[in-house]
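Incident review: delayed structure delivery

Summary: a single-chain prediction request sat in the queue longer than the usual turnaround. Root cause was a stuck worker, restarted by the on-call engineer. No data loss occurred. The affected request and its eventual output are reproduced below so the record is complete for anyone auditing the incident later.

Affected input:
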Amino acid sequence: MPRRLASLTLDLIDDLPDPCRSCVFWELDPVSKARAEAAGDPAFEKEAWVSEALLSWGSCGTLVYVDELPAGYALYAPPTYVPRGSAFPTAPVSGDAVLLAAIRVVPDFGGGGLGRMLVQGMVRDLARRGVKAVEAFGDARPPEPTAGATCVAPADFLRAVGFKTVRQHRRWPRLRLDVKGAQTWRAEAEAALERILTGTLPVPSPEPAYRR
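Output delivered after worker restart:
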């Protein structure tokens, strides 16, 4: 199935999966979030936030498509654009880092590596823009198969895609991924795979059997 990444723009905002399209957990502080939900139009606030981020900073997210169907997304921005981040006990995010606020794969497309693909796309985007690192708040609770979508990425997933814990917490650890390091590792892995596929990677001779 063909898969592709696309930068989040206002033209694509309606491709954010429900309930994320109208969720402003990260975009507003808790009081403003409650007011927006009481007013009944959080989707408008979401669009306004994306518009402001695009104008002031640039693309603040990446979407992944499978067979041209929206299958997931990652949302990221400098911490000053993400008020909810300051409410976590392991805040603040480091001054040289962008905050990965949310990342989600639609359940129907789970298990296909799309989460890792979204992280790789985000890293490429941030590397082009000179960003040194990306940090995220993780949820350290054991996963619940019957639970619905959550706004905080599982800490185990973040570690599995290369993040390292920089501030421990029993529930909300803060994790960090060095953008340059992630780019270097990916380039080396792709180069090694290319050498294997083209037959140019030397294969070590088997070691002689041990003899007494």
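Verification: The radius of gyration is 20 Å.
Action items: add queue-age alerting; document worker restart procedure.
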